[in-house]
Design a protein that fits this description.
Strand order of the largest sheet: 4-3-11-12-13-10-14
Structural class: alpha+beta
Strand content: 25-35%
Bound molecules: flavin-adenine dinucleotide
Radius of gyration: 21 Å
CATH superfamily of the largest domain: FAD/NAD(P)-binding domain
Length: about 350
């Protein structure tokens, strides 16, 4: 399980509410040069979940609803045959074929389904690493985000309270930046000294945006579709929302004997969160171009009571670009970092 478990309330499935460990109201964003931007909302803006129990609850609900799980079974390949799709699977070295009217690929960043569908892969593949620490004195309702090319080049580092534990991790972008070496540096910070590491995990986050998540007889959801959010790396909300939309199209397609095209799913996810992925990816490009000192300056510009109040009252981790117009009105000097971007967001 590779996940920091930070999800907006709308991103926690109704079927898995018991997986919530903490509710988050605030954030401290640490600039590369030591400035700290503090954001504090009155209402919880995110939950910290136990991803294992969250996914298990979804799995059990699926089984209760009639899904037949084939545990320990690996998908090897897919081919299209006579208007249907045929999956080759293998369990304990025994192979077999399963014919179906469609396949929904929820098989993560290395998706074999995506490959079979001939769809585009990630534009940026982040590499992440995280430890769970015991003994950190952290605020139960506040997360820390650390920015900087020496901290986590191409992304950011985090410290997230999770009950008795604190999840400390980061992602980097680029082969020349192995995340483990940045994590070693991160763990030398005074707030983590003396803490005990109880678990460690690593994984990848595929960032899009992609043009389509539909191939012949195949639909993709979650990381397979590169639906993780470009600014936060979060993929749980878009995965669950995409799955709901995909399931609607799949059941309609089966009911009306193929009248409903699977491509209807593309329109639905794009309307729901696809536009946000495109806008957020543009903002990511500006973020990547900022030097540490520019990032520090930009963060200080956010430290204006009106901007902070706007973010505290209306900020949304799932749709961060929605506020860009209003933020720029309140802090027009931010436009200096990328006039082109500003034009494309307004
Ligand atoms: C370090 C890190 C921290 C993160 N933190 C957060 C966070 O705080 N909040 C958030 O929202 N998101 C976070 N994410 C992203 C989030 O974890 C992913 O977006 C999410 O797990 C994607 O879910 P998924 O079901 O699409 O893919 P996955 O969770 O990758 O699941 C894919 C499944 O398919 C199976 N599979 C793959 N290939 C095959 C095959 N050939 N045959 C059979 N089975 C196969 C895999 O075993 C796996 O079970 C984080 C990611 C990382 C790496």
């Amino acid at each position: 399980m590779q996940c920091a478990g930070l999800v907006t309330p709308r991103g926690v499935s109704k079927l898995a509410q018991s997986s919530v460990i903490e509710s988050i109201r605030g954030a401290r964003i640490h600039s590369p040069l030591g400035f700290i931007l503090r954001i504090e909302s009155r209402k919880p803006r995110a939950h910290v979940i136990d991803r294992r129990s969250h996914d298990l609850a979804l799995f059990e609900s699926a089984v209760d609803a009639g899904a037949e799980p084939l545990l320990g079974t690996r998908l090897q390949g897919i081919r299209v045959v006579r208007g249907a799709v045929e999956a080759s699977v293998e369990a304990e070295s025994v192979g077999r074929r399963i014919e179906a009217r469609m396949i929904i690929g929820a098989d993560g960043h290395r998706s074999a389904c995506r490959e079979a569908a001939g769809l585009a892969g990630a534009r940026h593949m982040l590499r992440g690493i995280q430890v769970e620490l015991k003994g950190v004195d952290s605020d139960p309702d506040t997360v820390d985000i650390f920015l900087g090319k020496k901290v986590a080049p191409g992304f950011f580092a985090w410290s997230i309270p999770a009950g008795d534990l604190t999840r400390v991790g980061l992602c980097t972008w680029g082969k020349e930046h192995p995340p483990a070496s940045y994590l070693r540096k991160m763990l030398r910070r005074p707030e983590f000294s003396g803490a005990v590491e109880v678990s460690r995990s690593s994984g990848k986050i595929p960032l899009g945006p992609v043009k389509s998540a539909v191939g012949k007889g195949i639909m993709l959801v979650g990381d397979a579709a590169c639906h993780a959010k470009p600014l936060s790396g979060g993929g749980v909300y878009t995965g669950i929302k995409g799955a709901e939309l995909c399931a609607g199209v799949a059941s309609q397609h089966l009911k009306d004997d193929g009248e409903t095209s699977l491509h209807a799913y593309d329109d639905l996810w794009k309307n729901s969160f696809g536009t946000e992925l495109v806008r957020a990816f543009r903002i990511r490009k500006v973020f990547l171009a900022l030097s540490d000192s520019k990032m520090d300056r930009a963060l200080r510009m956010f430290d204006n009571p009106d901007v902070r109040q706007l973010i505290e009252e209306r900020g949304d981790i799932d749709y961060p670009s929605a506020l860009s117009k209003n933020v720029l009105k309140l802090a027009p000097k931010l436009a200096q970092f990328s006039p082109q971007l500003i034009k494309s967001l307004l």
